[in-house]
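The step that takes the researchers longest sounds almost clerical: writing a folded protein down as plain text. The outcome of that step, for a single protein, is printed below.
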Amino acid sequence: MKFFRFFKKEKREFKNIGPQDELSKVLNGEENSKDIVTKDIALQIPSLKGGISFIADLVSSLEIKFYKEIDGKVESVDDYRLNLLNKESGDTLNSFHIKHALVRDFILYGNAYLYVNKYRNNIKSLHYVDAKKVSILPNYDPIFKDGKILVNGKYYDTYEFVIFTQNTLDGLSGEGLLSENSNLLELTYNTLAFSSDNIAAGGIKRGVVKSAHKLGEEAMNALKKAWSSLYNRNVNKSSAIILNDGLDFHELSQTSTELEILNTRKNNDLDILSILKIPASVMNGTASNDQYNNFIKSTIIPLLEQLADAFNKTLLLETEKEEGCFFAFDTRDLLKGNVKERFETYKVAIESGIMTPNECRYQENLDAIEGMDIIKMSLGHIIYNTETKELYTPNTGEIISGNSTLFSTSKEVNEDGNKIA
């Protein structure tokens, strides 16, 4: 029954690709093939698949926060849209999968799209749209750039989508690895296909058959069929060829390409990691803290900034933009060093009066302790309470009120904080 074919495991094989494939598609009237290396083919390359997943997993695991200026301070506040961005998107994909898909499309295609389902000014849900299902119709005005977005035969305005692009000239569509680095991806894939074919053939070496006399058509066809079966990956490898009298097999020497195939694969992998801006040491887990932090700052942070800008452009109301509201990724955990380095940093920050103990605890996701919103100051050390605005000198027991100015005191003291005789 056809129903049970649904459970049959799909079998994929490596197949060499090249310019002739694109030509044949055009001549046969098949779908347009702008990129010889498609997404499905590219993701069969282990280094590319692993690199994209590594970046996308990092980005998708980060929480998005909503910030607003309150009394001259920028503070993180709650907002109903955070649930759509961090938990339930309203789509069949949850927020993690949506962010993962956006980053993957951004890297491969150079553009990613998220439809914003609105009712008036309220956002009801967010929906990921496959970049291959989207067509852009620009207005071709080099100054006042705009356009329409076509999905499944329906036109949409650009403000209905969160548009995430790179290497773009109009902000609506861009260029990714599939178009900008197609030669490298084609070379890497064909190298994998070459290795796969050799392994599938059981390591049988290439050669030629020499005949002492001319073979008839029937004998020639039988020899070709047997030889093709020997190298065919789908044929039982226990098969063998029996050469009749007068036939000799002469092995061909390996080419330089065959001898260097392992090094070629390693170099291809390094090249792919290079275009993804991922150090090999980060991928194999041998990177130092400095190397990892440099990777975060040069690769992940710019990606987060671009994604946050795209969210801010579409998800914020104009009044919110004027008030200085914005969405941003919480990157505290990304740049944390080891425990010893972090706590030494906190010690310096507390002793120099830059941070309060509770602020340091917040960085470690710990609950605040009542009475620890204090800043150490000089005079070895006087304590400043940020909530009551009072200065306290432990060695004298004096409390100095700072309601009007820093040294507006409840007792008569000089500018050094000492009593006036």
